[in-house]
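Quick one, tokens below:
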């Protein structure tokens, strides 16, 4: 049967999970910023087309 990790290993695993969570949050924030930037650009282009067509 497999042994459970000792406290030192558990602490290391928790730290790895914490770092991974921080990196994932940073990646999400970057992706969200990029998406919002492109959404604004697309909306601006659509508004320009509507103004030119009207």
């Amino acid at each position: 049967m497999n042994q459970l990790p000792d406290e030192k290993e558990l602490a290391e695993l928790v730290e790895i999970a914490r770092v991974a969570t921080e990196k994932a949050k940073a990646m999400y924030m970057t992706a969200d910023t990029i998406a919002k930037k492109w959404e604004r650009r697309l909306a601006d282009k659509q508004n320009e087309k509507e103004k030119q067509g009207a």
